[in-house]
Amino acid sequence: MKFDIITIFPQFFESFTKEALISRAIKKKIIKITPHDLRKWTRDNHETVDGRPYGGGVGMVMMVEPIFKAVSALRKSKNTPPRPSLSKRGVRGEFRSRVVLFSAKGKKFTQATARKWSKLDQLIFICGRYEGVDERVAQYIADEEISIGDYVLFGGEVPAMVVTEAVTRLLPGAVGKEESIQNESFVAGVLEHPHYTRPERIKIDGVMRRVPKVLLSGNHKKISDWRKANSKSMTRENADRI
To answer: Which residue in 24, 151, 170, 196 could disulfide with 118, CB within 3.0 to 4.6 Å?
Structure first.
């Protein structure tokens, strides 16, 4: 799966792509992550990507033209399989690609969205900066406008990393034990039960804190019942994240 990230700070992704499971997924050729410097698609000597907002106001707005050129180029990339291509399910079909604009006013990103996007062949991310992005990008270029939460960030680079990781985890071979994906949070409408590991006992603030005895019993039926009893049902707030 291809992740093409349009940004004015491509260096943000250097450590992200070289560490932990993301790095392993790249080495195993499960994913390919390519940051693209938006300034490559500018046409002036200053490589201008932003301008003053029409109507006045504070801050600068990212221009539509470089973004349009970038998205057009990435959709026609020489690394993009020709249409039609062999889909992940082994059926002859279209190369599946989505263009995502990260924005504080976008639709909330959820685990359900991650599952849906994990079936695609390419995700093109547009990382906004400054005061915002020309609205024509959301209206006519991006397929979806996405937010990762009800707060404002400096730009779309961190959301791009969040979504890349959430989607990559769902790709076959990206996680060592596939069953861990099936049994994790946001599955079957419940949140995961509490987890414990060694040591069995530890003193915290003068009080001895122990692992629940049932987890040490070796009785799988009792352990299963305890885990079910201690798994939280999805609240309305949590359910919005699925």
So the answer is: 170
